[in-house]
Amino acid sequence: MPHLNYHHLRYFWIIATEGSMSRAAQRLNVSPSSLSVQIKALEEQLGQQLFERVGRTLQLTEAGRIAVDYAGSVFKSGHELMETLSGLRPGRQVLRVGAAATLSRNFQIAFLRPLIGRIDVELIIHTGLFDDLLEALDAHKLDIVLANHPASPDARSSFENTLIDEQGVSIVSHKPAKPTRLGFPQDLARLPIILPGRGNALRSAFDALLGRSGIRPVIAAEVDDMAMLRLMARESGGLALVPPIVVIDELRSGLLVERIRLNTLKEQFFAVTQQRRYPNPLVAELIRSPSASRIRRMRGTEPLRSVKSSRGRSSP
User: Fold this and answer.
1) DSSP 313
2) Is the pLDDT confidence value at 193 over 90?
3) What is the DSSP letter of 92?
4) Helix and strand tally (H, E) in the chain?
């Protein structure tokens, strides 16, 4: 059986994706006539005409459309192989983690704890916007993305959302000088509160809850970053709406106290992965680790649930 010339296949794929012989020639820095010779050789090898000229434009034949699909899979697999093997070190495993900027650092540390300090593991952690992290995951530059919402469906990229934790949300503050019970939601009409930024799923649910009660809260600050929200809760002396894991150390030490638990509001923590031919074994090890179970036991959350979906580029 004759071997396929992948050099010729790459030229064909670029012409097809560019939609023009001249644009492909500019991209490859070769002459159009040289490209024509390469494509002719590929057609002879495959025994099929790949392009037909319609006026001044090139159009794919039926065989050409089939070849484009196969070529895309070939080059995607090659890219995945390069990205997967480029991170390997002799005797060591590399895990590339993306963490949404809005995600609790306490959650990240608790989830990654089984791998932290292991001599055979190198952790690479990137923090960024959820959309950008999914782009990197799709390009095989990340192995897993941690976020407080799942990837939403689209036909272009296949992802799997695993629910790691789901817990009620609390309103916390410093311990009041006189023990008083917070009246919810009526007291929020007079007591300033620090909230997650608008656009956050938790904030949207909170606004809807107060809207149904006819209460307009006094907002002291709106903070997108959970690490900053934690610091603001520590320093302000006022009320703050947070998932308990964000301020777990402060609650344990007594620096902050839980004024009320809002179990009708849920903060969720997801691990987003991609279906791959060569999955990183550390991902499955983390998701099924006792550490992940301990995170869930902090608030009596439900078992892990995996939801397969496809995802495009836009953030929910």
Assistant:
1) S
2) yes
3) B
4) 11, 11
Query: Would you state the pLDDT for residue 172?
Result: 94
Helix 290-297 vs helix 105-112: crossing angle, to nearest 10: 140
CA dist., res. 104 & res. 176, Å (int): 25
Report residue 182 as tokens.
């917070």
From CA 63, how far away is CA 46, in angstroms rounded? 9
Residue 57 has pLDDT above 80, yes or no: no
Both tokens assigned to 303:
């078992």
Q: How many C-beta atoms surround the C-beta of residue 29 within 10 A?
A: 6
Residue 147 — φ and ψ, nearest 5°? -155, 165
Distance of alpha carbon 64 from alpha carbon 159, whole angstroms: 29
Dihedral (CA of 178, 188, 266, 232) sign = negative
User: How far is the C-alpha of 142 from the C-alpha of 132, rounded, in Å?
Assistant: 11
d(CA 216, CA 224): 20
Tell me the C-alpha distance between 290 and 273, whole Å. 19
pTM for the structure as a whole:
0.62
Residue 220 has pLDDT above 90, yes or no: yes
Please report the beta strands in the chain, taking only residues with DSSP state E, as ranges in sequence order. Answer: 51-54, 57-60, 93-100, 121-128, 144-147, 158-173, 193-196, 219-223, 239-242, 257-274, 305-310
Q: Closest by alpha carbon to 64, among 51, 73, 76, 53? A: 51
> How far is it, in rounded angstroms, from Cα 42 to Cα 292?
52
